[in-house]
Specification:
single chain; 447 residues; Helix Hairpins; Heat Shock Protein 90; 5-stranded mixed beta sheet
Length: 447
């Protein structure tokens, strides 16, 4: 990157120096040309207003003052006098552009290059009172001659400027790249260091992605550790019960009790594995989601009916209220969402408690509420309740067979459907979880 910037800066500098020198030479030559013509104009007017012309006419002598050539031409183009040549041997000048301009407008100007292209002749003409034309001329170097003669100076200047540009480009490149190099070494420096304003969105995006990657890595590491820990407990129970039975230390009622313990632990393992697989599927970007228009109330009704036996086992009254409310969503995911919320509400309820599921329409949205009269959640735990394997009461969770992944699955499903979830809870008063979905018609308008 540095080499590329250096080459480009040096190339731009070289082109800028050459173009500048050429333009300056052209500008100086233009000023020089105008100056010569102005001098010739002043010289011609001075001659026309003095007796110098009459004197040189009478004396027939050349006037090489300041290397200015003087010529007098008749209105018909015949040369009457020339300070540097025999007028009688000169051809007719009527077609000369400066003569025609003088006869037509009172004065004229022209510049003619010599055949060798090394010198130019500057002409100024002035029409006199007797209609004759006074022409004064002077030779000077052409622009090509000036350029040729100034090549050594230009070459020295070009080399000096290029050397200076190379040094400056080196330091400029270092200063340009330095913030980027510091940012590469430590992405956190973007807020502390002076990073280019144009790079700030890019740098912040990289930093955010970097933090997300680290966060995901940490979360996956924690998830793996939690899974290992969760698997270890039921496996240890199964191993212990099996060993007792194998050694003949269990018989009769003890054997039945141990077998029941093995079955419960195996069911817990199966539930844990299923929830882990499901959460992994939801995490996968290739997860297929079948969005369709579904009636959330009907899904809630089916889920409540399916959970009634479990509610009776736990001595909890599970009920539903509301009406038809259609949303765009994945039916299977909606079933999982309601099942997990209801199961959680029943698991952390009290004997004789209630769980109320309601589905209602609110303007352009559909509101799903699951409210229980259970043990509630302390405020210090409410922010983390949707984290994987997070439990408020670990002993109660294990006794109810909970895996600690139910609400994490709920959170994923809510995110996939671009819905909003909120939780209100008080200890010993109960918990209310609210999920707000866009109405099917509103979702179709935005897609």
């Amino acid at each position: 990157m540095k080499k590329k910037i250096n080459r480009q800066l040096i190339g731009i500098s070289f082109a800028a120096v050459v173009i500048t020198l050429v333009l300056m030479t052209a500008a100086f030559y233009r000023i020089f040309r105008e100056q010569v013509l102005d001098d010739l104009q002043i010289y011609a007017k001075m001659i026309s207003k003095s007796d110098i012309l009459e004197r040189v006419w009478q004396e027939e002598s050349g006037d090489d003052v300041d290397m200015v050539r003087t010529t007098v031409i008749a209105p018909n183009g015949k040369v009457l006098y020339d300070s540097s040549a025999n007028a009688g041997q000169m051809d007719n000048h009527l077609e000369r552009p400066e003569i025609r301009e003088a006869l037509a407008y009172g004065e004229g100007r022209s510049i003619r290059q010599s055949s060798t292209m090394n010198r130019s002749t500057f002409y100024y003409t002035l029409r006199l009172a007797d209609s004759t034309v006074l022409r004064v001329s002077r030779e000077a170097h052409s622009i090509w001659s000036i350029l040729y003669r100034s090549i050594p100076v230009l070459a020295v200047a070009l080399c000096a400027l290029l050397a200076m540009c190379m040094v400056l480009s080196h330091y400029l490149t270092r200063s340009l790249v330095a913030p980027i190099e510091r940012m590469v070494e430590d992405i956190r420096c973007i807020e502390e260091d002076k990073v280019y304003e144009e790079l700030l969105p890019f740098a912040r995006t990289i930093r955010r992605q970097h933090e997300e990657i680290l966060g995901n890595a940490s979360m996956r590491q924690e998830f793996t550790a939690n899974v290992s820990h969760e698997l270890k407990t039921p496996l240890a129970a199964i191993s212990g019960y099996s060993e007792l039975i194998e050694n003949g230390m269990a018989s009769g009622e003890d054997a039945v009790r141990f077998a029941a313990g093995i079955r419960q632990s195996a069911n817990r393992l199966l539930t844990l594995i299923n929830d882990t697989i499901r959460l992994s599927e939801l995490d996968s970007p290739s997860q297929e989601i079948n969005f369709e228009e579904v009636d959330l109330y009907e899904i809630a009704k089916d889920s409540v009916e399916m959970l009634q036996i479990r509610a009776e086992e736990r001595n909890v009254c599970l009920s539903l209220k509301g009406g038809c409310c259609k949303i765009l969503g994945d039916k299977q995911m909606m079933e999982e969402l309601i099942y997990n919320l209801c199961d959680n509400a029943m698991s952390y309820n009290v004997a004789g408690g209630n769980v109320l599921v309601s589905v209602e329409r609110k303007k352009q949205s559909v509101m799903l509420r699951v409210k229980d009269t259970g043990i509630g959640i302390p405020k210090e735990h409410q922010e983390r309740i949707f984290e994987r394997f997070y439990r408020v009461d670990k002993s109660r969770s294990k006794s109810t067979g909970g895996t600690g992944l139910g609400l994490a699955i709920v959170k994923h499903i809510v995110a996939v459907h671009q819905a909003q979830i909120s939780l209100v809870s008080e200890e010993n008063q109960g918990t209310e979880v609210t999920v707000i979905f866009a109405l099917a018609e509103a979702s179709q308008k935005t897609t």
